[in-house]
Structure formats: C-alpha cells, structure tokens
UniProtKB/TrEMBL annotation:
Monomer. Belongs to the DNA polymerase type-Y family. Gene3D superfamilies: 3.30.70.270, 3.40.1170.60, DNA polymerase, Y-family, little finger domain. Coiled coil: none annotated. One of its GO terms (cellular component) is cytosol. Poorly processive, error-prone DNA polymerase involved in untargeted mutagenesis. Copies undamaged DNA at stalled replication forks, which arise in vivo from mismatched or misaligned primer ends. These misaligned primers can be extended by PolIV. Exhibits no 3'-5' exonuclease (proofreading) activity. May be involved in translesional synthesis, in conjunction with the beta clamp from PolIII. This is DNA-directed DNA polymerase. It catalyses: DNA(n) + a 2'-deoxyribonucleoside 5'-triphosphate = DNA(n+1) + diphosphate. GO terms for molecular function: damaged DNA binding; DNA-directed DNA polymerase activity. It holds the Pfam family IMS_C. One of its GO terms (biological process) is error-prone translesion synthesis. Its EC number is 2.7.7.7.
Length: 400
C-alpha cells in the first residue's frame, strides 16, 4: 500500500466565504469580491453560488452583473483575509506539522511516520475539517488532497471541490485524473500546453506515461522531467529559486489615467517595491518602467546605476525615465503602470565606497533613513510617512 507524505489544504472560495461568515445576510447568496468598485473592475474571487452562474476570477464586474443579476459585490479586504490565513495556520500548526503556507488560501502539511498511512491521513483530514468548522466558522470550508508529494496532493485537493477529500497514489493513478484537462494541472501554462500538443501529448494520461527525458526537451528545462516524475508519485524536492527582481504594477482606474495622476501612482509603486527590496536585504542596479496606453500602444524605458536600496534615489531615477517618455504620453490616457527593480545583490555582497567611508555591506545615510521609515510604518500598521507626494491606488492587495 502507498505511503503518503503530503496533505494539501485548498480553502474553498476563501475570500467570499469569509465575507459570508462575517455577514449573515450574504450566506447562501452569490457573492463576488471586486478589485475596483465600478463596472471596469474585475472579480478577484467569487462564492460557489456565484460560480454556478458562470462568474469566476477575472470576470468583469459589468459582465458578472449580467450573468448573475442578484450578485452581491464586496470590496476586497486583503488584510482581513491575511488575518484569517494567519489564524488558520496557527490552528493547523497546533495539531499537525505545517510544512509550508503556499499562498493566502493554501497550506501544505507534512505527513510524518505517524500519518503516512491512508487511514491515519484521512483521520487527520477529518480532524482538520472539524477544527476549521468549529473554530474559524461554519461558512469556511476547505478541500484536502493527500499524496506522496506536493504536486499530486495539490491536484487531489482540486478534484472534488468544495469540501472535498481525495487522495492520489500508485493504486489509483493515472485513472483517477484521466478526465482532467492538461491545463487543469498546476504548472501547465498555455505555452507548455502548446508544446505538449506539438509533442503529441493530448491528455493527462499521455503526460503521465511520457518519458521524463522527453518532457525535459518539451519544457526546455529540467523542470519538465521533474514534473513528470512528480506526477508519477516520486518525491521530487522543490528547488529554491533566487529572486531576480522586485516590482509592482497597476491597471489604473479611469480617474487615474491622466499622465499626472499616473505619475503619482507610479511613485507609490516605487515606494512599495523599494520597501520590499529592503525587507529582504537586497540592492538593485536597474529600474524599468512599463506603460500601456488607452489606445493600445505601450512604451517602456530603463536606467542602470550603482547598487542601491534608497527609495529617494529610486524616485529620482523614476522621474528621469518619466521625463524621457513625456513626449510620447503627454496627450495620452495611461491604462497601466508597472515598475521593476532588478539586477539584485544582497546588501552584504555590496562593495564599499572609499570616498564616502562606506564599508562593504553597510547602508549609507539615505538607506538608513529609508529603513527607519519602513520600521515606523510597520510599527503603526500603515503608511504614516511617505517620500513626497504620491497617489495611492488601493486594489486587491492594498485594501484593509
């Protein structure tokens, strides 16, 4: 009989179910969470009652209203959902070995020797479901997948949502997943699917029996071989990747599409990106900005510099790039703004500056000031100090 290593938890319509738990008038009714509170926004989460009408992530608000006339919209409250995530992770870690918080609504538990049998894993799953029901809320449900590795466990968690409990093992593979489409599998993008079809791999069952060496060629990476071996139940460890950049982007609401307002939103994105850069002790040597215009045109520019993690310095570079692009965008409506800090090294690896008496791995005065601002904002739980005038554009990840 197969031994199991991973229990994967996928919360069911997490954001919408939290809103239904907190507001009893929403229960058993179609609910959608919107990034922007107008018809130009998109749905970022939907309850199962709304999904029954065809409303899903990415559906435009105006289309959702047509598909489901009685739908109830709520603004996204990411900080609230994060609090639920932390509470659930605390509860899980108390009764099991929480191996990883994979996302805001997905958790991975390690099934050690005591829970590696199917009967024990099922017992633990039942206990987890009861605990969430009793201690988090009756409207908060979850689906669980059990398998020998994270990939199979994640696939199993999505087979019978909502409130599912499935397992994948040598005894029921690949027949248990043969009815899934290639794109149903995590990690199969549109590009990878096109390559698989070109290699005459038309189904999940074909992929299961694919030669791992052939998969490496199709993926053009060792990840293809790793994927197929994981699909067959091998316990392939997850590679740790090195961070290549920090950035933020925003599809602008109509009132922010003038060049002036778009510029101020861009300053806000720079502040947020620089803050994340410092949080993980990186310095950047390149800044890129990306703009998409209402007339479907686009433009971008970049600048390179000596390694820095200073917000004020990045804002000056952003202004230089924006000024360069001004002749193109001055009479345009700007639909999208994106910024990216790249060319990263850890600050400990940065060389010193002889003329300014800056030692290797040491922050300069401006960088220490930026870090102090980070600490104050973190202490008070909100941005009480900004680096000049900017224009916040709260959306899915910024709502409180």
């Amino acid at each position: 009989m197969s031994r199991f290593r991973t229990l994967y938890i996928d919360m069911d319509s997490f954001f919408a179910s939290i809103e239904q738990q907190l507001d009893s008038t929403l229960r058993n009714k179609p609910v959608a969470i919107a990034a922007l509170e107008n018809d130009f926004g998109c749905v970022v989460a939907a309850s199962y009652e709304a999904k029954a009408y065809g409303v899903k992530t990415g559906t435009r608000v105006r289309d959702a209203k047509i598909l489901c006339p009685g739908i109830h919209f709520r603004p996204s409250r990411h900080r609230l959902y994060s609090k639920f995530n932390k509470y659930i992770s605390y509860l899980l870690d108390d009764i099991a070995e929480l191996e990883s918080i994979r996302s805001i609504d997905e958790f991975q538990i390690y099934l050690g020797r005591d829970y590696s049998s199917l009967s024990r894993a099922l017992l633990l799953s039942t206990r987890i479901k009861s605990m969430i029901y009793e201690q988090v809320g009756k409207e908060i449900s979850l689906s669980i997948g059990i398998a020998a590795n994270p990939l199979l466990a994640k696939i199993a968690s999505k087979i019978n949502k909502p409130d599912g409990l499935q397992w994948l093992c040598e005894e029921n593979m690949p027949s248990r997943i043969k009815d899934l489409y290639l794109e149903d599998l995590p990690g199969i993008s549109k590009g990878i699917k096109r390559r698989l079809l070109g290699a005459k791999v038309y189904s999940v069952e074909d992929l299961y029996y694919m030669d791992p060496r052939h998969a490496r060629l199709v993926w053009r990476s060792v990840e293809g071989e790793r994927f197929v071996r994981s699909l067959r139940g091998e316990n392939i460890p997850i590679n740790k990747s090195n961070r290549g950049s920090y950035g933020n982007s925003k599809v602008l609401s109509p009132e922010n599409r003038s060049p002036r307002n778009a510029y101020l939103v861009g300053r806000w994105l720079i502040e947020k990106s620089a803050e994340r850069l410092r949080r993980y002790n990186y310095c950047a040597s390149r800044l890129d900005i990306f703009l998409r215009l209402d007339n479907f045109g686009s433009c971008q520019d970049s600048v390179t510099f000596l390694y820095s993690q200073d917000t004020l310095f990045f804002l000056k570079q952003f202004k230089i790039l924006w000024t360069r692009l001004s002749p193109v965008i001055e009479s345009q409506r700007i639909k999208f703004v994106g910024v990216r800090l790249s060319g990263l090294i850890n600050i400990q690896d940065r060389s010193g500056e002889f003329l300014t008496n800056l030692y290797p791995g040491e922050k300069n005065i401006s960088e220490r000031l930026s870090s102090s601002v980070d600490n104050l904002n973190l202490r008070y739980g909100k941005r009480i100090i900004n680096f000049g005038i900017h224009r916040e554009h709260p959306g899915f990840f910024e709502r409180g």
